[in-house]
Amino acid sequence: MSTVDIPTFDDVVAAYGRLLGRVLRTPVLNFARFDSRVGRRVLLKCENLQHGGAFKLRGATNKLLQLESASRIVATHSSGNHGAALARAARERGWRCIVVAPRDASAVKLQAILAESAELVACDPGLVAREATLVEVISRTGAAVVHPFDDAQVIAGQGTAALELLSEHPDIQVLATPVGGGGLLSGTAIAGKAMIPSCRVIGVEPEMADDAARSFHGGLRVGVQGSPATIADGLRGSIGARPYLIFRSLVDDVLTVSESAIVNAMRIALEDLRLLIEPSSAVPLAALIEGRIGRSGETIGVIISGGNVDLSACPFLAGRAPLSA
Length: 325
Prior knowledge:
Layout: H1 9-19, E1 28-29, H2 32-38, E2 41-46, H3 56-64, E3 73-77, H4 81-93, E4 96-102, H5 107-115, E5 119-123, H6 127-141, E6 144-145, H7 152-168, E7 174-178, H8 183-195, E8 200-206, H9 211-218, H10 241-250, E9 253-257, H11 259-273, H12 279-289, E10 299-304, H13 315-318
Parallel strand pairs: 2-10, 3-4, 3-6, 4-5, 7-8, 7-10, 8-9
Antiparallel strand pairs: 1-2
């Protein structure tokens, strides 16, 4: 694994320059009511307000701007947000985009991919099926692959959200993000440790998809089996090779939270923050609410990763009882 290309902070800085005018510099918000609830000063980097409703546009655009392909076709596999982001970046460059998506993906996210003029190819749930279908697409079309998280240029692009956050608020003591495949957390760790070496970087994932936590604490990269039954649909993927290597050197901890805690955090986000965020974004907030991130009185930075919510699948919005697990 020593030959794997790992992005540096210089790559994150270069990505920031490359993305100027192409992605939004999303706002950083603070809410006294939520601060009082958790006993910490919490600064929220609102990537739910990014073009396409998620941070994924940063990594996809940074990669595509550096990509040369005779076919002018890109392909990826995605549960939704990365596919829509790559489709947007490809459309703006005049390229064709093909997205392999599992059949259990959020209908809202699939509609967003189609709205960006991409071609959807359905596959069975789970990483194995996604990767196998992508191989078939590549062999048939000659498309260049833009991996959703295990790519140095994608990771560097994701790190620009933390770069923006810390440049505005250098007093942050802890940075927290959701973790699925690991692109956002690893990019955040690169930026965070370079800009504020004392800053602690924490990843949070669902208990139902806890491969990053098991990998981090066990010292061996492991994956999830099938498609985990978590409401946080964006965090069902397995941790990538590059993110895992970055985790081992730069991330301070990886936590897990229950399904009921995720739903509760979404509801509190509506009540305290007036923000409708997707379940994946609520995962670090759930750990904060439980008092597991930072210490009383510290300043915590959180990347709110996205806001693409399937309202029909959200228990308290669909009129169903909250999850009990």
